[in-house]
Amino acid sequence: MKAKVDQDTCIGCGLCPSIAPDVFEMKDDGKAHVIANPVPAGSEDAAKEAEGSCPVNAIEVE
Fold first, then answer.
1. Measured between alpha carbons, how far is 39 from 56 in angstroms, rounded to an integer?
2. Arithmetic mean of pLDDT, 31-59
3. Cβ atoms of residues 46 and 20 within 8 Å
4. Residue pair 9/24 in contact by the 8 Å Cβ criterion
5. If you count Cβ atoms within 10 Å of the first and of the last residue's Cβ in the chain, which end, N or C, has fewer?
6. Cβ contacts of residue 13 below 8 Å, gap of 6+?
7. Coiled-coil regions in this chain (predicted)?
8. pLDDT reported for residue 22
9. Which CATH architecture has domain 3-61?
10. Which pLDDT score is estimated for 7?
11. Where are the alpha helices (DSSP H) in 1-62?
């Protein structure tokens, strides 16, 4: 399973790293970035939850 954040769409709300800290983090540019690809075992559900929680649909997990 891989995760991706569309940097042009991301508004930097911080939800994804709060839901899936093993997969996402906020960087100095104020946007979320994927820090683990593939998504670590045991973090798949959290990554999918972060995808569904993104207010601007900037996350894709497949």
1. 21
2. 98
3. yes
4. no
5. C
6. 54, 55
7. none
8. 98
9. 2-Layer Sandwich (3.30)
10. 98
11. 15-19, 44-53
25 confidence band (pLDDT: 50, 70, 90): very high
Give the three-state DSSP class for 52: helix
CB 27 within 8 A of CB 10: no
Tell me the pTM: 0.94
Sequence-separated (6 or more) residues with CB below 8 Å from residue 11:
55, 56, 58
Tell me the two tokens of residue 7.
Answer: 């940097």
The per-residue pLDDT for 26 is: 98
Q: Structural domain boundaries of the chain?
A: 3-61
Q: What is the mean pLDDT of residues 50-61?
A: 98
Tokens at residue 45, please?
Answer: 């559900």
SS (H, E, C) 17-33: HHHCCCCEEECCCCCEE
**Are the beta carbons of 39 and 1 closer than 8 angstroms?**
yes
